[in-house]
Amino acid sequence: MRFGWLLACLMLAACAQTPLRGTGDLGLVIERANGRVAVVDTTAKSVLGRIEGLGDLSHASVVYGRDGRHAYVFGRDGGLTKVDILAQRIVNRIMQAGNSIGGSISQDGRLVVAQNYTPGGIKVFDAVTLELLSEVPAQSKVVGLADLPGQKFAYALFDKGEIWVTDLSDPRQPRTEKYPAGLQPYDGLVTPDGRYYMAGLFGEDGIALLDTWRPELGVKKILQHYGKGQEKLPVFKMPHLRGWAVAGNQAYLPAIGRHEVLVVDKGNWQEAGRIAVKSQPVFVMARPDGRQVWVNFAHPDNSWVQVIDTLTGKVIKTLQPGKAILHMEFSPRGEHVWLSARDDHSVHIYDTRTFERVATLPAQSPSGIFFTSRAARMGF
Amino acid sequence: MHTRYLPLVLCALASSASASEGVPFAAETIRLVRQDCGSCHGMSLQGGLGTPLTREALAGQSAEALAVIILHGKHGTAMPPWKSLLSAPQAQWIAERLLEGFPEEKQP
């Protein structure tokens, strides 16, 4: 009995030494070659710890539960790992496919959906238990999975050239609508309001656009013939549309095989301009306030980053932050941007107003950076 | 040929029998294949948007044919021509290494 009290006192004391904290300024950095993630603090600009044992994390991505505490990490090897970023530990881990590319979480946070290459299709999991609830086989590699309002998910089929929208209101009975999209969609995004789904096309010039409020109108092609028959440059890395860049009334999109960012008017979806940039864009991402758009580039120009001022449509800054800049993530309100420099084994943090480097953190072959502010954003 | 790759290629050629052992410049090419080819083919080369490049997946193919694909790309697919970045001997070296199972990158 006395021993029990002693133990209880000790445990209380141990708890008291770990102050309570929120997760709003936390995030994860993928350390792709080591199968682990670093837990980072965007206020202290520091690494709090690491979570190991997540498998092959080349091309890994993360979505957050709405508690901003649990993160779901999708690995290339088909691993789906649920981690608790406060406790810095793995809560659950399953191998859900042979070859996976990412995933998404439902509007209500109860469903986690993985998009897979092998076997191609999507799989639906219970966000609490990771129990498999249903799947939609596609006989195609699935790209660009994005959550929509109403427990729906949109995605594109690389091999079939289609956009599918699956309704998971009943997660065990998926209902799927299919729309022809165009040749080889390579990624997709949903606009911040959850209304428009866009799939970038690799096999032809243009973007496939679906108005999910009026799906009966089908897919509309926009930015067709932006290459005007010119031979495109070799594409050494597929662009990503994940980090959408919608700033004000315009959307900014990477041109495939061209050294350009395409600007589209969101009112009529017509081309509103093109911005010449250093090389082929990979990520084209708007700072949260929309005033700046940051662009990184494909190999062999991936040491560069450029910043576009959306008011003037001009490149206002060219930076060379480090070797192999793979990803960029803005702090929740955008005063800083974190850049992963894979071949420098560093994450560089820049002030987005002064363009000064404010900190550098060590990380092994860092790739994706994912902050908890994504938890409350559609399409993330 | 790009002169900057010349030492690499010479080392690569000299080492083609013994893979990457003791060849400092080969490390750069191995990293390029694992990391940059890996963005489509997967870092473990098990495939992704691109086809798998494991020894099993490539069984029966010739190194010469693979080198042609590396240099000139594959029409109708997302495979780009790498000839602006890789020399012919370098592509041949990569092709031969792929057929025997591509070496792992050394962790720093």
- Strand sequence of the main sheet of chain A, in spatial order? 3-2-1-32
Give a count of the beta strands of chain A, DSSP E runs of length 2 or more.
32
Which chain pair has the greatest contact?
A-B, 33 and 24 residues
CATH superfamily grouping of one domain in chain A: YVTN repeat-like/Quinoprotein amine dehydrogenase
CATH topology of one domain in chain B: Cytochrome Bc1 Complex, Chain D, domain 2
Query: Counting H and I runs of at least 4 residues, what is the number of helices of chain B?
Result: 5
**Amount of beta strand of chain A:** over 45%
Strand content of chain B: under 5%
* Low-pLDDT ranges of chain B: 1-23
CATH topology of one domain in chain A: Methylamine Dehydrogenase, Chain H
Assembly state (oligomeric): heterodimer
- Please give the alpha-carbon distance between the first and last residues of chain B: 30 Å
| Order of H and E elements of chain B | HHHHH
- Spans where pLDDT lies below 50 across 5 or more residues of chain A: none
CATH architecture verdict of one domain in chain A = 7 Propeller
Give helix % range of chain B.
Answer: 40-55%
**Considering the protein shown, what is the CATH homologous superfamily of one domain in chain B?**
Cytochrome c-like domain
- Helical residue percent band of chain A: under 10%
Largest β-sheet summary of chain B? none
- Quote the average pLDDT of chain B: 81
Question: What's a concise summary of this model?
Answer:
The complex is a heterodimer of chains A (380) and B (108). Chain A is mostly beta strands.
